[in-house]
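Re: your question about Glutamine synthetase

S., sorry for the slow reply, the queue was backed up all week. Below is exactly what I fed in.
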Amino acid sequence: MAQILAPTAQWQMSFSKNSTNASTLTSKMWSSLVLKRKGTHKSSAKFRVLTVKAENSTVNRLEDLLKLDVSPITDKIIAEYIWVGGSGIDLRSKSRTISKPVEHPSELPKWNYDGSSTGQAPGEDSEVILYPQALFKDPFRGGNNILVICDTYTPAGEPIPTNKRHRAAQIFGNQKVINEVPWFGIEQEYTLLQTNVKWPLGWPAGGYPGPQGPYYCGVGAEKSFGRDISDAHYKACLYAGINISGTNGEVMPGQWEYQVGPSVGIEAGDHIWISRYILERITEQAGVVLTLDPKPIEGDWNGAGCHTNYSTKTMREDGGFEVIKKAILNLSLRHREHISAYGEGNERRLTGKHETASIDTFSWGVANRGCSIRVGRDTEKNGKGYLEDRRPASNMDPYVVTSLLAETTILWEPTLEAEALAAQKLALKV
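Result:
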């Protein structure tokens, strides 16, 4: 955009649409241009500022409106209601005006949507009710506008099948679980794809880059693809109030990871879902496709996981390593149940290669990234800390994974016979 200082009447006439000078000016983006007439520099009152815009002037005007701050004009805000769709992994959202800023979900009204259009209700009884559950600042609209995580119910108040938050809230609301203050740190991996060819960002269309090795935490045009998206997402999450703790480029080129946590209980699921929504919106604006497929490219390439770091109060206290080993024993006995809930297509990722364990075998180890459960060196050394469940896929439902970990390690008790056999098999002395 260029600003032209020009006389009010006479000079405006010289900048007609057919003027050669005018067409030249409007085809370029100049930072500033001052046109002066001899003898008029002392009389600036005869001049006014005109705006000459580039050929994409419509886009510029749209950007101005998108950035418009309405808070000096009205107390009303925009609330973006967000929920999980019928596939269990897709996110949906719609907006409504709220009369004033709010501080708690209970201040917001319930709402509804057409469940027959999201695969969550039949056409003859399509109304699904949205219950607001968690609030975040809206990094796209700014001001007092908010993003609202909702879960979904029938008009009679029953959670619909894709509402996994409801069951998770019950588990995290159990007093025994509350007393253990479960912490989660979730490592969300994702892959960026080129829009037209659905091939990873930075890869030659229909071809392959060099083998893995230089891309993990890499720097440089030939090693890092999509850093601006990762950085924009990082800042947007901080603005929204998400407990994002870091980010890095991943092993496969075009693949990234961010970490959320430590988060307590149900908050972990809320933060992951809203961070995914923000990432979807950013890639939408960037014209890049986001995929959470656990194995987006077959062959000698790393898949995408959602490693879940987990600890309880007793794990973090002195003697906690024995509690961790007991938790690992429980997890081994419910391996199949966990795997079935850890993400669609995970069998393509958990092959025993590319830093994964086999999907059919449960294993654990200290500092071993080829195991189902990894325990850090510091945890072993200090005798307390956390475990990392490396089995969840990148498309897992965080409500399901976090609540299942809490249920298996805090609430569920195996039989003595099963416990003894598992301890022997895993070489655990509990």
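The chain has three domains: 2-66, 77-162, 175-426. Residues 2-66 form one domain.

Happy to talk it through on Thursday.
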